[in-house]
Amino acid sequence: MTPAGRGPVAPVIRLGPVLYSLARARRLERASPERLAEEQRRLLVRLLRHARAQVPRYRALITAETADAFRGPEDLPALPTLDRIELQTRAPEELLATGFTTANTKAGTTSGSTGVPVTIHNSERDLGYLRASYLSDMLSSGLRPWDRMAYFRVQPFLRHPLERFGLLRTFHIDTSGTLDEQVEAFLAARPTFLVGFPHVIASVVEELERRGIRYRGAHTVQFGGERLTPTARARVLGHLGARGHEVYASVEVFTIARSCRRGALHLRSADVVVELEQEDGTAVLADGSREAEGEILVTRLRSEAMPLIRYRLGDRVTVGPDTCGCGVRTPIVLAVQGRSEDRLRGLDGRDFHADFLTCVVKDFREVSRMQLIQEQPGRLAVSVVLADRADAPVTGRIEAALRKAVPGFEVTVGAVDAIAPERNGKVKLVKVIRSAEPADTP
Length: 442
Known about the structure:
This protein is of the alpha/beta class. Helix content is 29%, strand content 26%.
């Protein structure tokens, strides 16, 4: 963490920091678990001491004795967690390292899918690592230098100098525009590699089908940011004749996990440390020694301007041992089960996670999209978009399956033509509106 990285952020992408970070990431791609553990420990100790020495908020939270005694991931439970509320309410000056300001860093704002959008500040060195991480994700998913990449997102992005030579050309599909505008931008771009929210890409594909257009120019789709039903995913890939890859990432901590050629979602253990917080408040390291489930706490190992240690991302995940055999030797994310906030409430006032109910609905191949909505405890309304030629009585079968899963709940299932995304472009699988008191029991 030297002062060399504390200059202003460049208005264009600088290839030097990106290529340096990319080469380093690729070298660690297939490292042994022992080598990865050694690298993780080294970076974590360095990060902790940098944060304690340079960041006002961490100086207040972590004593000098704790920082001196810190030896690695096993010592993380002694440190406090960091959540969105604190990031949103603290002044940037409290969270930025010495020498960094809002003027010499680049801000990135989350989509606000939890209702608490936060802004992260990155230095030029941080951005080099970020861009290298995303480029590494795409290269591992099959990106070729001559590909035309379509990014489905709201905000545009900086250009890079290789585009003038026809390499890694990028095209922005503005997801804040109308569906017609997105389709026209997509067709004009003629992309061969797609990156974006699954539901947005699925909507474009469905509109192409409605127009009778069969687009076969894409060879890969990299999904990220939300979950898609198996039926909708198969429809997208089938229409395009493309392969599908998954990336689990966030604005705050960059890439957490990426799918391999066999489809397993491997943790990026050289870039992040992942813990899983249990219901009793204890946390276990997601080191692959055993299968574990809980709310994810992420520490981004390379973070110069605004370190995030034990950051509460808001997701519930399950992580297990590496049983893949693809050559990547890191633990596997078995399931991203949804937001930790996505809890339904029963008539007795108790909350419970809804991921097992989304799995009930997913088991019906006729379902292309879905959304579970609760406005009152003990009641559940489910909207489903049915695949082509699905029979209408399937909604009754879904309703019966859900009632069996949550006895005593009042459940209604209705077929709809579409499910509207939130303002950030994502579709919430579980939408809970806490505006009503528990319904009266019969």
